[in-house]
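Usage

Read records sequentially. Each one opens with the input sequence:
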Amino acid sequence: MGCFWSRSATTPKVPSVAVAAESVELKTSDDLTLEGELCVPDEAWAAAVLAHPHPQFGGSMRSIVIGALFAALPDAGVAALRFNFRGVEGSEGSFDDGRGERLDVVAALDLLHPITEGLPLLLAGWSFGADTALAVDDSRAVGWFAVAPPLRRPSELVAAHDPRPKLLAIPEHDQYRSPDSAAPIVREAEHTRTATAKAADHVLPRRTDKAAEPCSGFLRPV
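and closes with the structure output:
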């Protein structure tokens, strides 16, 4: 287990440039239309789908960690797609406790993959979104980056037994899944690393501005 930001020193710096976001619509396999936003830098070297925290506790694609990733990743050369799960704000449908939401993640892949074809594509999420991403098995993804995953249903996290790499960024004082309680679950998982967000809790106060560093650092060797 390492420090959350330990890779930043070796992550190549990319000049910061303003990247415009565009509104997009996602279509799920069960015929729902979801709203999203897409940022694709001119010289993208990777891409990421960003899944937001729990809809029934105010989570949306504009939640703080997802917002920070969506702002920072394109400036680091990573195309980013964020979206609202079914039933959130302008997205059709209703909350489905993490099950139907897996189809929403796949719909995001359906939109992003053709646009960024040939680039490594990461599934990423925070909290509920992290668990949902880890429960999606799709060959188009090269790996998973999970911020503060509750690991609520370990048996449903298909990524755990997949050979593709995973990085779980777990806050030191997370109220829902501490590093110690995550350890036995992670030990059963394949090709999975954990990193600790020092002195942070589940919402990562004052650390969100650096959220892209471990994500892009994880993507580089992948």
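Summary fields computed downstream for this record:
- Helices lie at 64-72, 100-115, 128-134, 179-187, 212-219.
- The domain at 2-219 is CATH 3.40.50.1820 (Rossmann fold).
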